[in-house]
Specification:
This protein has 353 residues and is mainly α. The chain has 2 domains: 276 residues, no CATH class; 60 residues. 76% of the residues lie in helices and 0% in strands. The radius of gyration is 28 Å and the shape is flat.
Length: 353
């Protein structure tokens, strides 16, 4: 059977008609490119982001590099003194320029978050992003979360919708390259899960329908595959996420604790990302083998597989707009009225769906 699949796959007709094989090979290629780019560029950018968060959190001034002034030479006192004065003036201007830029950057980042009593000295060093506000405790939410229902709804869309989270969310602490790799992996995941649901009864139904796509018959398969794919993707996203780790560094009370925590989390993140790329590559490689054999043997069935995958993937992109309408009713009501912690907990449970 395996030899027959390989003959069909690598024959001219098999390669031309095997759309699934090309699709999975493309996803594998994207996964490899993302892994190379991350370990060359992305990981160092993540470390710089952690360093910047610590500097802003604990008001660490920028390190200003002083240029070495060359020693004076004999016989050219006037010229050397003029040059040294000019270099000192240039160095002072650079120091002032860098210091002013640092002050401006601090003023832009340090937004004034005032209490209800109007205390202007109560500031937070760094803005809380969507994830921090949505996962905050009830007491912190009452103190800091003054968003409207619509703003809270948009924050859930930014964190839970695959396309928006991958390409249009900028205030989170997840590497962009990892998010792109996870997005394309998700499409391959939907592809293989839908293919696994094609059995003898499905083939028989296609035969009875004379090749016409029976949407009603495919609805249960599409629903099951969507749920399974979303659950697997959610589990893998926990492995690829760095947000919780960075927030833990950010919440440290002292500079020494933040640096020690950062060292531990950096090692943990590196292991997590390596495991993520290994698992995703292995899964896509297995999917490529299975889909290639499936489409090579059942050439006339791959059109139904593509339709099921497209509908299932589209459903996963649509349902966040509906399900995320619910948590806001409980959350906003509990924060406005106060002393309704139970409703707040319900909203946090629903927003996990």
């Amino acid at each position: 059977m395996v030899i027959k699949c390989y003959k069909l796959l690598f024959s001219s007709k098999g390669l031309i008609s095997n759309i699934g094989s090309y699709t999975l090979l493309t996803l594998i290629f994207i996964n490899i490119i993302c892994s190379i780019l991350f370990f060359i560029i992305g990981y160092s950018l993540l470390l710089n982001k952690i360093k910047k968060i610590i500097e802003i959190k604990f008001n660490i001034p920028l390190e200003i590099k002083k240029t070495n002034i060359p020693p004076k030479r004999k016989g050219k006192k006037k010229r050397s003194s003029i040059r040294s004065k000019a270099k000192v003036d240039i160095m002072d201007e650079n120091i002032n320029y860098q210091t002013n830029n640092y002050i401006k950057e601090k003023e832009e980042i340090n937004d004034k978050i005032e209490d209800k009593d109007g205390d202007k000295n109560n500031k937070m060093n760094i803005d809380l992003n969507d994830y921090e506000l949505n996962s905050s405790s009830y007491e912190d939410a009452i103190k800091y979360d003054h968003r409207t229902y619509f703003e809270y709804y948009l924050s859930l869309i930014r964190t839970k919708h695959m396309i928006i989270f991958t390409f249009y969310t900028y205030n989170d602490y997840n590497p962009r390259i990892i998010k792109i790799s996870l997005f394309f992996f998700s499409f391959g995941l939907f592809y293989i899960v839908n293919a696994l649901f094609f059995n003898d009864s499905t083939m028989h139904q296609i035969y009875e329908d004379h090749g016409v796509f029976n949407f009603i018959f495919q609805i249960p398969q599409i629903i099951y595959s969507t749920i399974i794919s979303v659950v697997i993707r959610t589990i893998l996203s926990l492995l690829s996420s760095s947000e919780k780790n960075i927030i833990e560094i950010k919440n440290q009370k002292t500079l020494e604790e933040a640096k020690n925590t950062a060292k531990k989390k950096q090692k943990c993140l590196l292991i997590k990302f390596i495991l993520f790329f290994i698992i995703s590559f292995s899964f896509l490689a297995f999917s490529w083998y299975y889909i290639s054999c499936f489409c090579a043997v059942f050439k006339n069935t791959q059109l139904y597989l593509i339709k099921d995958t497209a509908i299932s993937f589209g459903t996963s992109l649509f349902y966040p707009f509906v399900i995320n309408l619910i948590p806001g009713f409980f959350r906003i009501h509990s924060l406005k009225n106060g002393k309704k912690k139970c409703l707040y907990r319900i909203s946090k449970i629903i927003q996990l769906i």
